[in-house]
């Protein structure tokens, strides 16, 4: 289970109705299942985001200006970041996700797909604050938060 606080689970289970934050679904297997769901015809957000990136990627890059580092919250498989990095051409990418093992594999793929990109994985819960590697420059950061993870919040 990713970055679990025992009290989160027990507190959620004693509520009526019981509830557990969706963030606890995203271990290695849960992340793989979610990626499979995103490929289903019924799941439109991923296709919509990809279409938006293809249609407006150049506009996004112009609006973003000079980007040294892309920081993606809820990076998952890093596929959207790959498209964005193609448009803004950063020197560095930092993927942040609660599913550490899954993110590490995704960042390794991104390194192969975008030669020369300093791609890093930061396992963390963005709702609890994120600590970036200390050598990430403060200037030229672009925080990228696309996707369905926003649907996990009330």
Brief account:
With 154 residues, this protein is an alpha/beta fold. The protein has helices at residues 6-14, 28-38, 45-64, 79-88, 100-113, and strands at 69-73, 92-97, 118-123, 141-144.
Report on this model:
The protein has about 150 residues and is of the alpha/beta class. Helix content is about 40%, strand content about 15%. It contains five helices and four strands; from the N terminus they run H-H-H-E-H-E-H-E-E. It has a four-stranded parallel β-sheet with strand order 3-2-1-4, with helices on one face. Helix 3 runs parallel beside helix 4. The radius of gyration is 16 Å and the shape is globular.
Descriptive keywords:
154 residues, 5 helices, alpha/beta, 4-stranded parallel β-sheet
Element layout with pairings:
Layout: H1 6-14, H2 28-38, H3 45-64, E1 69-73, H4 79-88, E2 92-97, H5 100-113, E3 118-123, E4 141-144
Percent strand: 5-15%
**Number of separate helices:** 5
Strand order of the largest sheet: 3-2-1-4
Q: What's the alpha carbon Rg, rounded to whole Å?
A: 16 Å
| Overall spatial form | globular
Q: Bin the helical content.
A: 40-55%
Instruction: Give the terminus-to-terminus CA distance.
Output: 22 Å
Topology order in helix (H) and strand (E) letters: HHHEHEHEE
Number of strands: 4
